[in-house]
Amino acid sequence: MTPEQLTEFINKHSSIIESFRRSASNFQYEKNARRQKGKQFSEARLEHEVDLMVAAFIDNVYTKIKSGVAEKRLHPYESWVDFIETKNVLDSLEDDVSTIVFE
Questions:
Q1: How far is 28 from 22, CA to CA, in rounded Å?
Q2: 67: helix, coil or strand?
Q3: Which of 2, 38, 82, 88 is the most buried if burial means most Cβ atoms within 10 Å?
Q4: What does the alpha-carbon distance between residue 51 and residue 84 come to, in Å, rounded to a whole number?
Q5: What are phi and psi of 41, to 5 degrees?
Q6: Is residue 25 within 8 Å of 3, Cβ to Cβ?
Q7: CB 80: neighbour CB atoms within 10 A?
């Protein structure tokens, strides 16, 4: 499974990435509000910062899952799905994202 496939899978079966994006966006906007008026980021820059946070989150999730998956040569995608479902990865991620605190 590629990172793109993982993202698609997560989006199809949960709202984890959407929830993370919402939390990251709130964090970036609050952080920006504390900046001096002349140093505040533009809307586009804030969205870019959120995109970077989401990309890092997905990369981290992908790396952690990849280390636990024993890919089968003929069915690597199914190996990932089996691992994700067997280990309740999406449930764990939902719990983690719901309690995440950015600093």
A1: 10
A2: helix
A3: 82
A4: 24
A5: -75, 155
A6: no
A7: 23
Q: Nearest CA to 93 among 102, 84, 101?
A: 84
Q: For residue 50, which of 12, 71, 19, 81 has the smallest C-alpha distance?
A: 19
pTM for the model stands at 0.91
For the stretch 22-41, pLDDT in tens is: 999 999 999 999 999 999 99
Residue listed under structure tokens 């919402």? 22
DSSP 38: G
Average of pLDDT values for 84-102? 95
Predicted local confidence at residue 83, as pLDDT: 96
Choose among 24, 31, 14, 12: nearest CA to 95.
14
Q: Please state, in angstroms and rounded to a whole number, the distance separating the CA atoms of residues 93 and 103.
A: 19
86: Cα separation from own chain's centroid: 20
Q: How far does the chain reach from its first CA to its final CA, in angstroms? A: 32
With CA atoms as reference, report the closest residue to 70 among 59, 60, 82, 58: 82
